Amino acid sequence: MNNTDAVVKEQRAGIVIIVHMDGEPVALLTRRGKLNPEKIGVEPYGRESWAGACQVTAHGRSKSSDEGPYSTMLRELREERGQKWADIVGELNAREHVYVANVDENEKRVITTYGVYVTEERLSELKHTHKPGLTIADFVGLELTAGATLEPLPKSKMDQLRPLEKSEKSGVRDLEAVAMFPDEIVAVRAALEKAQE
Asked: Which sequence spans correspond to the domains of the chain?
């Protein structure tokens, strides 16, 4: 194979934000909503695939304007969670607190998932509250964009993580389960373990 035959792999990137609440590390996951405004005109009624599935805090495909996986992750975080979230992660990266939690690569794509620990003080900025002693309950069901919600996953409940099944592409029925793509499960476990160090 010469250089002109090289396969260009799709690039994706995401981030899992870890916080400390109720005495343990907690991963802030996103539970996908039923509709996705980006899919209007592409999917019937803008229907979200894998509705009800969990994923890392923010995740998405790279665009030609992205300078690499980190740039993709920050853009996705800004688009999905807002400028304040991206600003906080950017500031933490400047102090070398953002790390690669997992890289999953196959013949078609490369997915880089970052991890970062955010203090309770910085977390309260994201919640737009300054009350001390934030708990997991303060974040359960916090509405995000496109009907998605925040889904805190304490380290003690990592056993609830399970891979998505192909039959769930039209929607996850058991919302008590934390069904995720396998590469994201690896990243979440790695980030929660690192937070314990």
From this structure: 8-196
| Cα distances (angstroms) measured from residue 181 to each of 3, 54, 127, 140, 188 | 32, 8, 27, 21, 11
Q: What is the crossing angle of helices 83-94 and 69-81, to 10°?
A: 150
Where helices occur in the chain by DSSP H, the ranges are 69-81, 83-94, 120-127, 182-196
φ, ψ (nearest 5 deg) of residue 148: -75, 155
Q: Are 38 and 61 in contact (CB under 8 A)?
A: no
Q: What's domain 8-196's superfamily in CATH?
A: Nucleoside Triphosphate Pyrophosphohydrolase (3.90.79.10)
pLDDT band, very low/low/confident/very high, at 18 (cuts 50, 70, 90) = very high
Say if pTM beats, i.e. exceeds, 0.85.
Answer: no
